[in-house]
Amino acid sequence: MTELLGHEKHEPVANPGGSTRNGLSRKTLKGEFGELAIEIPRDRHGSFELKLIPKHQTRWSGFDDKILSLYARGMTVREI
To answer: What is the C-alpha to C-alpha distance for residues 1 and 8, in angstroms, rounded to an integer?
Structure first.
């Protein structure tokens, strides 16, 4: 979110478009592991989108495969 908006949380708006943080959206993902409730940050213009879970997606199959592929690409456990 910081990269998209160009400023940290609680800092003055520094981007020319004027988009700011606008709270969180709650989403429940369903998969092989059961249900998982997550909170997704949002911005005023609605341009922020998660890379792993696109907008309007509620089913999440292959969770373990995605985590393993991130680890195989060199991400640390903390980054994941």
So the answer is: 8
Q: Are the beta carbons of 52 and 10 closer than 8 angstroms?
A: no
Give the contacts of 16 (CB within 8 A, at least 6 positions apart): none
**Cα separation of 29 and 12, whole Å?**
33
Contact 80, 67 (CB under 8 A): yes
Report the distance separating Cα 31 and Cα 62, nearest Å.
8
Domain limits, the chain? 2-72
Cα within 13 Å of Cα(31), Cβ side: 15
Name the phi and psi angles at 28, rounded to 5.
-110, 120
Q: Give the mean pLDDT per block of 10 residues along the chain (80 residues).
A: 68 70 82 83 78 77 79 87
